[in-house]
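re: that complex we talked abt at group meeting.

here r the seqs, copy pasted straight from the sheet so there may be weird spacing, ignore it
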Amino acid sequence: MSMNLLRFIRRRSGSAPVARERLQILLAHERGLRSQPDLLGILREEILAVVSRHVVLDPEKVVVRMDRGKSVSTLEVDIELPNGFEKQLAVAS
Amino acid sequence: MAKVLVVTSGKGGVGKTTSTAALGAALAQQGEKVVVVDFDVGLRNLDLIMGAERRVVFDLINVVQGVAKLSQALIRDKRLENLWLLPASQTRDKDALTDEGVRLVIEDLRTKFDWVLCDSPAGIERGATLAMRYADEAVIVANPEVSSVRDADRIIGMLDSKTAKAEKGEQVKKHVLITRYDTGRATRGEMLNIDDILEILATPLLGIIPESQDVLRASNVGSPVTLNNAASTPARAYADAARRLNGESVAMIVPAERKSFMGRLLGRRAA
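got the structure back, here u go
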């Protein structure tokens, strides 16, 4: 009987509500990604193409990152340029 | 007009094969001519659950590759004369299936049966996408558990984008089948309940199959649970689900928890 009583007290604090909330947050995020097939991949490709028109760069050194916040998300583009790229620019033009 | 139905889930071990066999047998018991098709190439198991493992001669791959005729590969159930099985290959791998080959076999099956039930392999790879490719309807099997619900959501997304129907701008009719449900635990807040799952997946409910020892008992002896013990709670739940597939409106019964008097006193569930 004491087990039953304990269970009754614990009844309100089952873990299912946690499961539901975690799923809702996760799936909202994953569905967003699904409708935008590899948005980051596309952005990275296009940014790389534009910058490469003017500067010689290592494709490995282009990092595109997205950070999803509650109200705003940020897009971070990190491009590492080799030293002396201005000279290459001058030659190109 | 034949209907092609895929039984799918994303996650493994949630009850796709059990549900394919049980729904197929229930539809056949209700007078429909049914074939259950195993798409799990390399890891076939529908033959075992149907109790036909020693009668497999030719398989789906043989038919797709033109080695055998469809009529040679189809196995007629020994208990129900309008229930048939098309087994998967155990020795080949899933790359032996081609989109065009599957299309032709499904088209052929459509002319011979009322229902074509495709038992999908787990995962989201080629085998799973081919199993759903030519489906008109889909049963998404899910357990009341986070990883299963997440994968079910993923599969729903694929049904809406990667099927032949979706590519034509039509919709695969989707149903969620919740298996291994424990009403007591859900009521106590220990397990996702039906409303939680339906709200998250936003897909209509086909049925609720309770967690039950009858399911293992049926698979032990190689009989769909709807045939092995038609009076058991999972069998009745599957039979109701099959009627709903056929367009009947059957009241949704949430399987009740059976408790003995002593069990109640001790706070334990009856076996």
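couple things i noticed - The radius of gyration of chain A is 25 Å. The first strand of chain A starts at residue 62 and ends at 68.
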